[in-house]
Amino acid sequence: MRKLGGQQDTSYKAYETYVETRLPEVVANILICLIHQTNFPLDQLIRKLDKAFVQEGGLRERMTRARLAERAKQKSR
Fold first, then answer.
1. Is the separation of the CB atoms in 18 and 30 below 8 Å?
2. pLDDT score of 38
3. Segment 42-72, tens digit of pLDDT
4. What domain range includes position 24?
5. Neighbour-count burial of 70, counting CB atoms closer than 10 A to its CB (0-12 exposed, 13-18 middle, 19+ buried)
6. Taking a C-beta distance cutoff of 8 angstroms, is the pair 40, 8 a contact?
7. N or C: fewer beta carbons within 10 Å in the chain?
8. What is the 3-state secondary structure (H, E, C) of the chain?
9. Overall number of domains in the chain
């Protein structure tokens, strides 16, 4: 499951053999494993976005900085 779950662009067809031929308890464990595999990169993305927010500010702060920089550039012309 880890190898299969780590592949990109997989569909239900890739898992169909495992899901359709196993006991319900095993299928539940397979699905839990896939949920964890999906959750891991999402957790990493959230941490990265949190760090960027702390370092660079939120959208309004960045927009204000960009607007002020543009005004300063226009004044210096």
1. yes
2. 85
3. 999 999 999 999 999 999 999 999 999 999 9
4. 2-75
5. exposed
6. no
7. C
8. CHHHHCCCCCCHHHHHHHHHHCCHHHHHHHHHHHHHHHHHHHHHHHHHHHHHHHHHCCHHHHHHHHHHHHHHHHHCC
9. 1
